[in-house]
Amino acid sequence: MSGSPYAPHTASETTAMLDAIGVDSEEALFDIPESVRFDGEFGIDAKSEQAARRAVASTLADNDDLTEFLGRGHYDHYVPSVVDHLADRSEFITSYTQYQPEVAQGFLQALFEYQSMLVELTGLEVANCSMYDAATALGEAATLAERLRSISGTRVLVPDLLHEGRRGVLDNYVAGSDLTVETYPTADGNVDREALTEQVDETTAMVYAENPTVRGTIEEGLDTVGDLADEHDALFTLGTDIVALALLEEPASVGADVVVGDGSALGLGSAYGFGLGLFACRGDRELLRQVPGRLVGASEDSDDRRAYTLTLQTREQHIRRERATSNICSNQAWVALRTAMHVASLGPDGLVELANDSVRRARETAGRLDELTGVQAPVHDRHHFREFVARVDQPAEAIAADLEAEGYAVHAVGDHEIQVCVTEANEQALDGFVAAVSEVVR
Amino acid sequence: MSRQQERPDEQSETLTFEQASWVDPDGDRYEPLLSEKGSETVEVDSELPDDLTRDSLELPNPSEPELARHYTRLSEMNYGVESGPFPLGSCTMKYNPKFTEDLAARADASIHPDRSERSTQGTLGLLHELQTYLGDIGGMDAVTLQPPAGAAGEFTGILVAKSYHEANGDERSEVIIPESAHGTNFATAAMAGYDVVSLPSNEAGRVDTEALEAALSEETAALMLTNPNTLGLFERDIEEIAEMVHDVGGILYYDGANLNALLGRARPGDMGFDVMHYNVHKTFATPHGGGGPGAGPVGVTEELREFLPDPHVRATDTGYETHTPDNSIGKVHGYDGNWLVLLKAHAYITRLGDAGLADASAKAVLNANYLAEQIDYEIPFGPFHHEFVASAGEQDAADAAKRMLDFGVHPPTTKWPEIVPEALMTEPTEIESKRTLDQLAAAFNAASASDTDTIEHAPSRTAAGRIDQTSAARNPRLSWQALDDEE
Amino acid sequence: MSFDIDTDCRYLESHEWVRPDGDTARIGITDFAQDELGDVVFVELPSEGDDVTRDAEFGVVESIKAVSDLYAPVSGEVVAVNERLFDEPELVNDDPFGDGWMLEVAYEESDFDGLLTAKEYRDQTE
Questions:
Q1: pLDDT tens digits for A397-426?
Q2: What is A67-78+346-440's CATH superfamily?
Q3: Which of A86, A301, B176, B477 has its CA 20 to 30 A from that of A114?
Q4: Region annotation Disordered: residue ranges (chain B) (predicted)?
């Protein structure tokens, strides 16, 4: 095992190639000064495929086998096998960005379909073909607000209960701009609309709200938030996820200008936070020219047949450089492909049913936990989607640790608050989970 | 509106030829959109109050067999690394080993990011090992795996540089970038709030040290370089460049796009770079996925370790834990990055080991040099390494590339870097055999020998003919709803 | 190849023209410029009532592969914008000195000092 197993050269071929070039050795092709040559070792032994596979798998096996009741913005739904098999077709997964559209019609059409699904789900006219994750999509929405001429404000208002990862990324995305991030209060999990009204004025660039919220509550009266942003010439950005979009109020109908959020709830399992950033926005001329990320458009080929291509690329870094709408290049196209496949496999019936089940499961599970001594659930007197916060008499961290010992993972989100997320991926374990909770909360 | 299409079994008349033929070569499409194959509108009923829900939802409703055929047809109209040669310069289109996909599909790889550290020792262990591997490969003291792409790695690295300067009470305003650099470098510097100072190349295609001297000042936060540069040339003055940048207190940033040229032979850390990103979807063979996901880990010197993103994985006496570096820049991804991509990169490095990695570079450089010998287009700069930039000369490089599609190969990157007129930036990678390179060279030479009329009308043998970019941009139709509106 | 040049216009080296018409002047880009750009797909212009400043950027013209800044040959308030360009950017290619005009600006006569004459501009592009 002296070489790369994926380099096909035989010794005689290598010699023939060196001869053709006119050098004696591969070494002679490297024009690297002696002083910066590396002659050390990394100490990584080459392995057979079988041994490499075993090595990685054996480390992975150190992860505990837990049934997760975890969410807070990143969700595990059952992904049908058909998605794995189709998305893993090598023509898709081993292809590159579609800079030669004539040989990339398949992926372009799939991304065009993905964009169209988001247009339907959000009610907005434009969706890009992916951002990294919900957090970076939020960051991009904020810098979009700053670029819009119609917006003169610089304050970005976000709920005090924003997921810490999203807040952290947002802070970094605005670090190079004139924007500042401020929080507004929530009341019983949802936007405190009175308090928000006090904070929004003409210095506001963007108002951000989520539906469902990070604590699983479903917002009420988001249209008033839309109106508020509109009255003060601020962008209204709504954070959500691909399943919730099928059931909850359509973002366009509550006045959302931009929708961001997580798309990987469909198409990808938990994957340790590996995600897909949704990004959709209104389609008026000003926004269209400021959208971050890649866009696939329909056009015609030389025979006047419909064909697809990346378009409006002058927004992007490879043409506009330091004046690009974003520095994004590699995105999450393959995850978008998977998400589109999953949406299509569910169809509108299946997707709405999944969303309705998410409401039911949260309600029923909260009800079951509430019956236990030492638990009050849900904490918030709201409707819930997939997940809810429960109050526990014991310290939450201890409860979470005890549950982990029983084989279950939950979030500890406050001194005496745990958060529980239920989907079809863990529903079959609910009885055991409720029994375990009843044991550990005593 | 609903575009319910009639299905063949609902039709009473005899099928026309077009309806009968499965593939419609003369129609206005190759594979209908999912929406055209049949959509359904459902009224949304729910236990929730009506004012909290949407009214209806219209989406395609294919059966699983229909879905499988749809995406199989689409895949047949798409070119990947396994379709044929893919010498796309700066993109390092390697073969993506299948066993890495199997590892990524394991149930114990798909865990929630908010789990406790004690229950995720496997994942943390692999991340820590990968940090160590990448640190060793790049000559860096500490590595973060959080950035989800190369551009995100750049942003992370520049934020680290910014935080470093700020921690020294040093406000700097400029980032210097060679004119020939990747567009992301410029966009990243601007995103981090810096003014960009563009640096011209010298006649040999390398950093012009006199121009650099003139550009450097107390305002210089960083110089972003890739080495070998976008022409495939090693910056032989790199140590002098590093000294010049460090003399004014600047940070030297390494763009890892071209690291495949150096594995086991030279390390950015040894050249004087302070920060670097790795493109694992290039150098470490994770699939590009039609544009992503990638991953852009960032390595730094000891001095900059404290600024790395939160969280960072470290070893303890008994296992692994995450911690927040003392002066962390915070977060660049909602969680810990593109984990499954990182897992595949780890598996690739594990498989190749020292010898395989060094051989990958050797063969990548051998292949580029051999291919260059075989093609008729002029290559103005050298000696190059894993990639070269040929000039299409009197031809339009974009047209020449379209002509290459007719020979069943993917063309090189075109019209960039601009220092070479009508550039054909070519990177065959180590995976091609001599025989494949000979075939690829024949495609280059056939394109080179083609007359203007032929290349302007190419391609003629692909799923779609030349696509009208002007129409797409003047009249943006970005969804099937927009197509419906047009009709 | 020769390009149209309008002798009633004055020019900037960056290929913008200005043609006085009473109290106002129209501004656009030259035939040479539109040819260099290729198919124009988008034009970004200021709004009526905005001010433009001599030699400063006032907008952007985009083709498929390039983005170019537009520079104002004269200073003054924008009194009209050619809104047709928003839906028909091809007018810049088809008729750069006519229907492809961009702005109408209230200007000062003295603003013309230092602008290229048609002959000087022709010499520059040849």
A1: 999 999 999 999 999 999 999 999 999 999
A2: Aspartate Aminotransferase, domain 1 (3.90.1150.10)
A3: A301
A4: 1-64, 447-487
